[in-house]
Amino acid sequence: MSMLEIKNFGKQFTIHHLDKTMQAVENINFSLEAGEFIGIVGKSGSGKSTILKSIYRTYLPDSGSLLYDSERFDKIDLSKATERQMLYLRKYEIGYVSQFLNVMPRTTSRQLVEKALLETGEPEWVARREAEKALTHFELDPKLWDTYPTTFSGGEKLRLNIAMATVKKPRLLLLDEPTASLDQQSKMKVREIIEKLKANGTNLVGIFHDIEFMESLCDKVFDMKTRQLITEAQAGVANEG
Ligand SMILES: Nc1ncnc2c1ncn2[C@@H]1O[C@H](COP(=O)(O)OP(=O)(O)OP(=O)(O)O)[C@@H](O)[C@H]1O
C-alpha cells in the first residue's frame, strides 16, 4: 500500500473572537508511494502548511482520513490516532522540519541532537556518536556544536533542525518551507541534503515557495489549485505550455 494516503481531507478553524469558522482546506486527495518525494504547491493561504501540520497532528484534522502505513501500528489514520500513538510516531517514524527552530533554551546543538536519540531509548554513547555523525553529515561547523543555537544564522539553524529531525531516521519527513529565509547558496546546500535523504530511502512531503528549487527534486507535485497530483515530467510540460 501507499506510505501515506490522504482521502477527502479537510480542516476548519474556529475564529473565536469573531465566533466564526473558516474552511482552511477541503477535499484533498493524494497518495505518497514508498520512496517518493511529493512537493505541494499553491498560493499563500491555500492550506499547504495546514496539510503538513495535520499529518504531524499539530492540527487535529476534522474531515477525511490520513492513512499512514506505520511500521509499529500498520495502517493508521492519523486523524484518529490517540495522543499516545502520535507521540510514538513523532518520536520514531515521522519528522517535521520548518524554517523555525523551537528548542529548549541553554541547550547546545550537540545536546539537542543527542536528546532526540536519548528520547528513543538509545544509550548515551550511541547518542553521542550518532549526533556527531549527523552534525558532520549536515555540515554544521564543529565550532558550533557546543554553543547555543539562538545566535545561529538561518542556514545553520536549518541544518541543525534537519539533523535533529533526521538523526532518528524517520520513515516520513515533512518539510514545511524550510528554505523560506535562505540565500541561494544555502538553498543549494539544503537541496543536496534532501537528495541525500531521498537516496537513503526517506519518504518526503514538502512545501517550497521556490518552484525552481523543487524542479527535478520532487517525484510528483500536488497543486492546491487543481487539487491534482502530477508527475515532475507533467509539471515541466505544464510550465512550458
Ligand atoms: N491555527 C490557525 N488558526 C486559524 N486559522 C488558521 C490557522 N492556521 C492556518 N489558518 C488559516 O488557514 C488558511 C491556510 O493557511 P496555511 O498556513 O495552511 O496556508 P499556506 O498555503 O501554507 O500559506 P503560506 O504559503 O502563506 O504559508 C489561511 O487562511 C490561514 O489564515
UniProtKB/TrEMBL annotation:
<keyword id="KW-0547">Nucleotide-binding</keyword>
<feature type="domain" description="ABC transporter">
    <location>
        <begin position="4"/>
        <end position="241"/>
    </location>
</feature>
<dbReference type="InterPro" id="IPR015854">
    <property type="entry name" value="ABC_transpr_LolD-like"/>
</dbReference>
<dbReference type="GO" id="GO:0022857">
    <property type="term" value="F:transmembrane transporter activity"/>
</dbReference>
<dbReference type="InterPro" id="IPR012701">
    <property type="entry name" value="CP_lyase_PhnL"/>
</dbReference>
<keyword id="KW-0067">ATP-binding</keyword>
<dbReference type="GO" id="GO:0016887">
    <property type="term" value="F:ATP hydrolysis activity"/>
</dbReference>
<dbReference type="Pfam" id="PF00005">
    <property type="entry name" value="ABC_tran"/>
</dbReference>
<dbReference type="GO" id="GO:0016829">
    <property type="term" value="F:lyase activity"/>
</dbReference>
<keyword id="KW-0456">Lyase</keyword>
<dbReference type="InterPro" id="IPR003593">
    <property type="entry name" value="AAA+_ATPase"/>
</dbReference>
<dbReference type="GO" id="GO:0005524">
    <property type="term" value="F:ATP binding"/>
</dbReference>
<dbReference type="GO" id="GO:0005886">
    <property type="term" value="C:plasma membrane"/>
</dbReference>
<dbReference type="InterPro" id="IPR003439">
    <property type="entry name" value="ABC_transporter-like_ATP-bd"/>
</dbReference>
<dbReference type="InterPro" id="IPR027417">
    <property type="entry name" value="P-loop_NTPase"/>
</dbReference>
<protein>
    <submittedName>
        <fullName>Phosphonate C-P lyase system protein PhnL</fullName>
    </submittedName>
</protein>
